[in-house]
């Protein structure tokens, strides 16, 4: 590792915004190690590791004050990461089960294999869906409740093939986003914005978001512990990338 990075370099590497890093500095969660020319903040490898732990804990739904207490008390960084890794591996296993269920369902519909009734629901958690719906209503009020009801009406007549296709499209968009992250593409890059058009159409199969609700959905991906754990299992920057890219798409293309 280099000896230190500017705030811009750390923001790009971590997927968080410069504004967020400045806020973390202001509240004492992640103080800059050095202030350079022009007031530019610089960070050492130790601070980069601290930021990683902060983002992992944020993915678990902790408030910033709670995160500060945890990272300040952690003496053994490796042991702390082992704890986080355990949770991430559990979520990856759950996602892997869902992937296997969708793949098996496609094979079943194409006549390649038979599925028992119980197999159709392997990895599917109705209680988790109810939590997500309640979180949407808490965040966005009555409009979110209307979107949920709209989604139920639209999907009421779907067969298994239609439902499996919708899930597969979400997975494809996420995989494409991971490729963009790996290529160093910024969330507001035209390639990312174009991918979010595909994300918008995938969401619109269930309900039709406007600028505010599509942006809010992206924020929920980044803020919700369940969503962050799911996306972190694919890439540690995926949730924040989707959040920022959806906001850029909404700003540029939605009224």
Automatic annotation (TrEMBL):
Q: Does the keyword Ribonucleoprotein apply?
A: no
Question: SMART domains given for it?
Answer: HTH_MERR
Q: Note whether Membrane occurs among the keywords.
A: no
Keyword line: Activator, DNA-binding, Transcription, Transcription regulation
Q: Which SUPFAM superfamilies match?
A: Antibiotic binding domain of TipA-like multidrug resistance regulators, Putative DNA-binding domain
Q: Which domain of life is it from?
A: Bacteria
Stored Pfam families: MerR_1, TipAS
- The residues covered by the HTH merR-type domain are 4-73
Q: What is this protein called?
A: TipAS antibiotic-recognition domain-containing protein
List the taxonomic lineage: Bacteria, Bacillati, Actinomycetota, Actinomycetes, Kitasatosporales
């Amino acid at each position: 590792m280099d000896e230190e990075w500017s705030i811009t370099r750390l923001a790009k590497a971590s997927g968080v915004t410069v504004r967020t890093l400045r806020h973390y500095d202001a509240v004492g969660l992640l103080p800059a190690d050095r202030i350079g020319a022009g007031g530019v903040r610089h960070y050492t490898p130790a601070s980069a590791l601290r930021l990683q732990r902060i983002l992992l804990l944020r993915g678990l739904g902790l408030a910033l004050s709670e995160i500060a207490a945890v990272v300040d008390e952690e003496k053994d960084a490796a042991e702390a990461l082992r704890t986080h890794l355990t949770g991430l591996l559990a979520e990856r296993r759950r996602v892997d089960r869902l992937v296997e269920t969708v793949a098996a369902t496609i094979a079943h519909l194409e006549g390649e294999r038979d599925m028992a009734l119980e197999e159709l629901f392997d990895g599917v958690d109705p209680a988790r869906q109810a939590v997500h719906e309640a979180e949407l209503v808490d965040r966005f009020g009555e409009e979110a409740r209307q979107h949920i009801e709209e989604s139920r009406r639209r999907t009421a007549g779907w067969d298994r093939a239609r439902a499996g296709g919708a899930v597969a499209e979400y997975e494809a968009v996420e995989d494409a986003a991971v490729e963009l992250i790996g290529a160093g593409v910024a969330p507001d890059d035209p390639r990312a914005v174009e991918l979010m058009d595909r994300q918008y159409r995938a969401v619109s199969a269930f309900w039709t978001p406007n600028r505010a609700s599509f942006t809010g959905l992206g924020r929920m991906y980044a803020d919700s512990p369940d969503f962050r754990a799911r996306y972190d299992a694919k890439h540690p920057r995926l949730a924040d990338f989707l959040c920022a890219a959806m906001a850029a798409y909404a700003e540029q293309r939605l009224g």
